[in-house]
């Protein structure tokens, strides 16, 4: 094929030669009624909403479907090292079609275009099951999200439209991630671009809802759902703007008096699920920038420890039990406080105010007490690791995470190079790496990138070589964007060992690795 033919092929819209992707996505033709149907009118806010999506620039060239994308079945085969295969192998129950009416016209009021309906179907049957790490016969993403999203038709309410746009952003990114495995030019992935468009629409609608002060009652649940969906999408995509949706979701919950007050205003399983998911995605962010989480603050986390329900959704989605989530959040609160004390010490170094010095001394004593408390709790949790739903993957994930926190607490406040070389630290590094090696040998990948990245910072000598080998080994299978995974594997994480947290963040932003990992 010559250059002119290649250009013509790349710009050609979808034609009938799309049989391999019919069950995944079907884009409307330019100017069609389906494309125009993307346009719900926001009378109350005079905002164009999803109608403003210009999909003409997102039409996918024929060659993508002709010789680049295998049938969908090949992605769900355990023999195929596609990005989502490990999650499917661990946790893909029979798709639960809750909220997906059997008659196609029933979806039209909520998803006006065929493209949107195809994306929604993809979320139901493919994306949502892969958001679990422990198999469950009733997927909480579908049980709780679908009734919310299908409560009011498109164009009638900004909160519902925001949540639907967020779901479409996640679904289109999931398709793009599958396509990216075999595209000749991954950087031109049209589904990624479509995901970006839907993400932008969802953010704009969240902003409108916030400005108009309408994110209350059921709309508050939808705003949190929007934030959770976008935060999940941003983590998988490696978006450097991941803090934006988290900020919206946290603000909604805290504006209602915090998580406990928010939950007490409307006691139901859906709100509980959304608050817990929002708390966890905020925690993943805190584990990235070491800032104290707000939803799971040290003195307001009692609401989390409610084990009366049969299904623990935190463990189904992430594989962590509540005690592990709580101690991670408390550790981040401790590290954030320690950083503030160090900043205060530097500020008072020149003036040496006695009152400030006394406050610093008191803070350091309090920190030492809480550090000892957390180390004792960590040791007990590791000894008692027994998740609600038996899963070897979950046990190993919890054990690895708790060891990471122990290492962080043991080295906090000490000289980094000296502390990391201590045998008590490197023995724990070896324990984490051995746990991950066992998991990988059994085809388990999801949830182990987080401890691997931490060990890449903490390991020395031969342990560092083991980390590099494991990162390379996990790279083809991990369910995140291929480009992000490549940057994470190639980055010299040992540079972080002697750097303060602000320097870490600056380096991560420059290298585009500033993103929560799990």
Describe, in plain words, how this protein is organized in 3D:
The chain has helices spanning 3-11, 33-36, 62-68, 72-76, 85-91, 114-127, 140-149, 158-179, 190-211, 218-237, 243-255, 259-265, 269-289, 313-318, 322-351, 354-384, 392-411, 416-421, 423-441, 449-458, 462-474, 482-490, 501-510. It is an all-alpha fold and 518 residues long. It folds into 2 domains: 3-213, no CATH class; 319-510, Up-down Bundle (Delta-Endotoxin, domain 1), CATH 1.20.190.
Compact summary:
The chain is mainly alpha-helical and 518 residues long. It is 61% helix and 0% strand. Helix 19 runs antiparallel to helix 20 and helix 19 runs parallel beside helix 21 (462-474).
């Amino acid at each position: 094929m010559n250059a002119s033919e290649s250009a013509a092929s790349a710009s050609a819209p979808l034609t009938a030669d799309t049989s391999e992707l019919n069950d995944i996505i079907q884009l409307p033709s330019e100017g069609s009624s389906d494309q125009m149907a993307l346009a719900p009118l926001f009378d109350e806010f005079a905002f164009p909403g999803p109608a403003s999506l210009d999909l003409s620039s997102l039409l996918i060239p024929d060659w993508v479907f002709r010789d680049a994308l295998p049938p969908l079945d090949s992605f769900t085969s355990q023999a195929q090292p596609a990005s989502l295969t490990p999650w499917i192998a661990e946790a893909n129950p029979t798709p639960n079609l809750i909220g997906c009416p059997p008659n196609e016209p029933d979806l039209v009021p909520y998803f006006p275009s065929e493209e949107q309906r195809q994306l929604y179907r993809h979320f139901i049957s493919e994306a949502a099951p892969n958001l679990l790490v422990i198999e469950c016969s009733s997927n909480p993403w579908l049980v709780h999200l679908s009734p919310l999203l299908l409560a009011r038709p498109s164009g009638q309410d900004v909160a519902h439209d925001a949540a639907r746009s967020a779901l479409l952003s996640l679904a289109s990114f999931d398709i793009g991630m599958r396509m990216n495995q075999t595209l000749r030019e991954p950087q031109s992935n049209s589904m990624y671009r479509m995901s970006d468009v839907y993400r932008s629409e969802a953010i704009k609608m969240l902003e409108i809802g916030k400005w108009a002060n309408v994110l209350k009652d059921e709309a508050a649940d939808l705003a949190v759902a929007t934030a959770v969906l976008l935060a999940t999408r941003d983590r998988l995509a490696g978006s450097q703007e991941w803090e934006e949706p988290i900020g919206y979701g946290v603000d909604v919950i805290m504006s209602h008096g915090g998580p406990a007050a928010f939950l007490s205003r409307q006691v139901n399983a859906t709100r509980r699920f959304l608050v817990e998911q929002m708390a966890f995605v905020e925690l993943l962010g805190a584990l990235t920038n070491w800032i104290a989480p707000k939803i799971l603050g040290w003195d307001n986390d009692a609401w989390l420890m409610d084990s009366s329900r049969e299904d623990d959704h935190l463990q189904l989605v992430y594989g962590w039990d509540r005690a592990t989530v709580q101690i991670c959040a408390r550790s981040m609160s401790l590290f954030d406080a320690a950083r503030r004390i160090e900043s205060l010490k530097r500020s008072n170094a020149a003036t040496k105010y006695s009152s400030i010095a006394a406050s610093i001394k008191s803070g350091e004593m309090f920190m030492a007490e809480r550090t000892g408390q957390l180390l004792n709790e960590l040791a007990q949790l590791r000894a008692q690791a027994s998740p609600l739903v038996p899963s070897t993957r979950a046990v190993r994930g919890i054990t690895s995470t708790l060891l990471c926190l122990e290492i962080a607490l043991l080295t906090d406040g000490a000289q980094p190079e000296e502390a990391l070389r201590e045998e008590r630290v490197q023995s724990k590094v070896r324990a984490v790496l051995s746990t991950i090696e066992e998991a990988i040998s059994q085809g388990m990948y999801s949830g182990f990138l987080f401890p691997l990245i931490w060990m890449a910072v903490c390991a020395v000598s031969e342990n560092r070589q083991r980390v590099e080998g494991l990162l390379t080994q996990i790279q083809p299978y991990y369910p995140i964007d291929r480009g992000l995974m490549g940057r994470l594997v190639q980055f010299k994480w040992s540079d972080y060992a002697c750097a303060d947290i602000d320097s870490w963040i600056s380096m991560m932003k420059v290298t585009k690795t500033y993103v929560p990992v799990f």
